[in-house]
Amino acid sequence: MDATSEMSLGLERSNWYLRGIRRAEEDGLISYSRANGDNEVGVSDDYGHIRHGDGEALLLKYTNTRPLSFIARLLLNLYRNPDFRFLELGPGAGVACATVKRLLPDATIDTVSLTPINPYLRFRWDDVYDHIAGPPFHNKCASRFYSACPHPFVHTQYIGHFPREVGLPKEKYHFVYENHGAIFYGFQPYGNDEPMECARASISAALSLLRRDGTMLIMASDGSYRMEEAVESVATDTDVIVICKPAKPYHSCPCIVARTDSPLSMRFRDGENGIISKSERVLRVEAEALEEVIAKSCLLRK
């Protein structure tokens, strides 16, 4: 850690994280929904990510430090666009999208969540959870797991319930990533709404954000087949849908949606090397074989 970082994390260590959020607000990097108003009262923290006044800058735990998945890394490697745009629905502490920024430094990264994050930090590891899982962690200050950085790793944070409170530009993103985020929680009822209606609305809204060469990866199904059914029924204008066959009831499996001009779709339909025929649109694979199937497709030459 350099001297500047030490100063940033030295005095008033307990509110350094919140000061980073306030700086992001001043820099126009956080867009609150109307439901949140101007947020003058305080930062919304629906899932307890932030600790206030107890010496911890951020509460790191499994639910908000999930690393970027191996499948996402494979798919992201297909994109080398200088204008690459990435959206994460439910970033938690921002570990996964911070990894994306490290892998693709020129990428523009946006997030949608209920709690803002401090974008002026750098995590020391891509897999933070591996380092907080040990028994000694409760005696350590969370700020030891990241340091300050001069440039934000997130371009814009949209704060609000997706999709009913958050408006994002249509057909703008090359990649939409969700890992126990807005789509996953869309299967839980809100007020008098039916869970499946909420889920379908979330999936449809997320798909509308994809460019023609875009790909969406949902890392966790709801565990009872409904996610797979909803994706297949809603994604009618997409070229390829990859769905895992649940190995057992309530087994969470990833779902992938690739639009017509996405590099994954083109590889799937790459003549004799292709995995899916022209007459097919949905590919169902065993959960244990998914990574191998995606890896094989990503290694094919254009």
Give an account of the 3D structure.
By secondary structure, this protein is of the alpha/beta class. It has 2 domains: 1-70 and 83-163, no CATH class; 169-302, no CATH class. The protein has helices spanning 3-8, 16-26, 70-76, 95-103, 129-132, 182-185, 195-208, 226-234, 263-268, 290-298, and strands spanning 30-32, 85-89, 108-113, 121-123, 146-148, 156-159, 173-178, 210-218, 240-245, 255-258, 282-286. Strands 1-6-3-2-7-8-10-9-11 form a 9-stranded mixed β-sheet, with helices on both faces. A two-stranded antiparallel ribbon has the order 4-5. α3 packs parallel to α10 and α7 crosses α8 (226-234). It is globular and about 55 Å long. Residues 1-12 have low confidence and may be disordered.
How does the SSE layout of this entry go?
Blueprint: H1 3-8, H2 16-26, E1 30-32, H3 70-76, E2 85-89, H4 95-103, E3 108-113, E4 121-123, H5 129-132, E5 146-148, E6 156-159, E7 173-178, H6 182-185, H7 195-208, E8 210-218, H8 226-234, E9 240-245, E10 255-258, H9 263-268, E11 282-286, H10 290-298
Parallel strand pairs: 1-6, 2-3, 2-7, 3-6, 7-8, 9-11
Antiparallel strand pairs: 4-5, 8-10, 9-10
